[in-house]
């Protein structure tokens, strides 16, 4: 294993004041409305075993509460109230599963104005719904809760219809919370820098230690060992470790193939620290150097990524850097005789999607694909505009090219080559900062590392 590790980061401390300030911003945006958020119950893995629990990002952002099976109500109005429904204390279950905050802890530790056992939710939600006309609630994650909320909403409307305006609107939480979560505060950026630092070390070690004859899962194990060793909660998503043609599968996750000299290895893996994500992709030779065909594709993707990073600027639209990456890739593919026609024709007909079928990036934060808005309510000629980048936003920049073997018209020279290069980029007041710059991506730097990588069959130092 590595002879030296970077700093081990302890779990971040809970800060009730920080979460309270965030709730105040929500109350201001809510007006007289009601917002309902929830931490879902634990998910079964098999039989009586559960997956490791992770709280809902919005609940954590506004409360810091990490326990499963909890509902948060934010009641707007002249006297805003923060209400929690949580699992009650249970000494027997706590012996097996660990301590619970309980109803009292929800008030004293997390600042709830009112707190109740989770079993009281169905009986009490109607009283809160009768006080508002609009509920902000995110559908889709838990069908059972969806139905409970709809039934309570309808019942409240029936009770109120003779007394005045009844609740009649359900809105998504995204317009409020997505806007809030878009620009990160100092605490969020600290967590994201640590997540990036941890993942960067893991990627660098993979680049230094990978050798022909290993299996993809062995490389995955090295990555995730470093994630945990340095204080991450683990992976921020299922790691992609794809050698050879597996790199042409965008969300490949089997990670069980043998790595062969002469192939490329694409690693897309990030660490999660304090419920904030990093997201890095690097592509490098399993052997000591790129083949000429691999190098042609790699250098084109790298040129597109560099141009796109330069376009990540405050005031630019979210789509701008994608267009820069796309046009750079199209020009390069035309030069390689892989696409024909003008730039505008290729873009209009989308013939580039044969080799490049995803966007150049996404928001990054507490969620890997952060739950923030991509479009504003501004309109120009009747169409929505992409959100503007502003200081504190973090995006990924990740163009790629993929030549699946057997694909129609894929030249034999490039068959089986998949290349993606991804960095996490913070928008600053004057430009941008690449949070993951510690991982080499220049051809010369990668080949210098690979020349001294372990020989086939050798063990890492």
From TrEMBL:
Arranged from A to Z, the UniProt key words for this protein are: Aminopeptidase, Hydrolase, Manganese, Metal-binding, Protease
Requisite cofactors: Mn(2+)
InterPro entries documented for this protein:
Aminopep_P_N, Creatin/AminoP/Spt16_N, Creatinase/aminopeptidase-like, Pept_M24, X-Pro_dipept-like
Q: Which GO terms describe its molecular function?
A: aminopeptidase activity
Locate the Aminopeptidase P N-terminal domain: which residues? 14-146
Q: What is its EC number?
A: 3.4.11.9
Q: Does the keyword Protease apply?
A: yes
Question: Which reaction is the catalytic activity of this chain?
Answer: Release of any N-terminal amino acid, including proline, that is linked to proline, even from a dipeptide or tripeptide
The entry sums up its family as follows: Belongs to the peptidase M24B family.
Under which name does UniProt file this protein? Xaa-Pro aminopeptidase
Species of the source? Chloracidobacterium validum
């Amino acid at each position: 294993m590595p002879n030296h590790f970077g700093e081990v980061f302890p779990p971040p401390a809970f800060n009730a004041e920080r979460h309270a300030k965030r709730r105040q911003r929500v109350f201001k945006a809510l007006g007289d409305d009601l917002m309902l958020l929830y931490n879902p119950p634990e998910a079964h893995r098999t039989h009586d075993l559960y997956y490791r629990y992770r709280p809902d990002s919005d609940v954590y952002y506004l409360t810091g509460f990490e326990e499963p099976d909890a509902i948060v109500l934010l009641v707007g109005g002249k006297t805003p109230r923060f209400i929690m429904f949580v699992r009650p204390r249970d000494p027997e279950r706590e012996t097996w599963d660990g301590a619970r905050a309980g109803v009292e802890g929800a008030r004293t530790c997390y600042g709830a104005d009112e707190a109740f056992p989770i079993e009281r939710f169905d009986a009490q939600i109607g009283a809160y719904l009768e006080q508002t006309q609009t509920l902000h609630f995110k559908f889709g994650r838990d069908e059972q809760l969806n139905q409970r909320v709809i039934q309570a909403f309808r019942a409240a409307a029936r009770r109120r219809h003779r007394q005045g305006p009844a609740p009649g609107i359900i809105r998504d939480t995204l317009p409020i919370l997505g806007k809030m979560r878009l620009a990160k505060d100092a605490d969020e950026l600290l967590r994201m820098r640590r997540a990036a630092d941890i993942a960067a070390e893991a990627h660098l070690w993979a680049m230094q230690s990978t050798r022909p004859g290993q299996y993809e899962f062995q490389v995955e194990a090295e990555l995730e060992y470093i994630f945990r060793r340095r204080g991450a909660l683990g992976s921020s998503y299922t790691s992609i470790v794809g050698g050879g043609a597996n790199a042409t599968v965008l969300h490949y996750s089997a990670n069980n193939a043998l790595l062969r000299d002469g192939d490329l290895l694409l690693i897309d893996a990030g660490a999660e620290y304090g419920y904030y994500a990093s997201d890095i992709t690097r592509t490098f030779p399993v052997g000591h150097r790129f083949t000429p065909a691999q190098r042609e594709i790699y250098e084109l993707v790298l040129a597109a990524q560099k141009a796109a990073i330069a376009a990540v600027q405050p005031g630019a639209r979210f789509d701008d850097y994608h267009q820069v990456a796309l046009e750079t890739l199209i020009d390069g593919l035309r030069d390689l005789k892989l696409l024909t026609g003008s730039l505008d024709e290729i873009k209009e007909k989308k013939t580039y999607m044969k080799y490049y079928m995803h966007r150049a990036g996404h928001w990054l934060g507490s969620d890997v694909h952060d739950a923030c808005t991509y479009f504003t309510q501004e309109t120009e000629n009747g169409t929505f505009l992409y959100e503007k980048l502003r200081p504190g936003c973090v995006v990924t920049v990740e163009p790629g090219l993929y030549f699946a073997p057997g694909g129609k018209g894929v030249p034999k020279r490039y068959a089986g080559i998949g290349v993606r290069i991804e960095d996490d980029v913070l928008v600053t007041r004057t430009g941008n900062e690449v949070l993951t710059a510690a991982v080499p991506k220049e051809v010369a730097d990668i080949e210098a590392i690979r020349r001294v990588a372990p020989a086939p069959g050798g063990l890492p130092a």
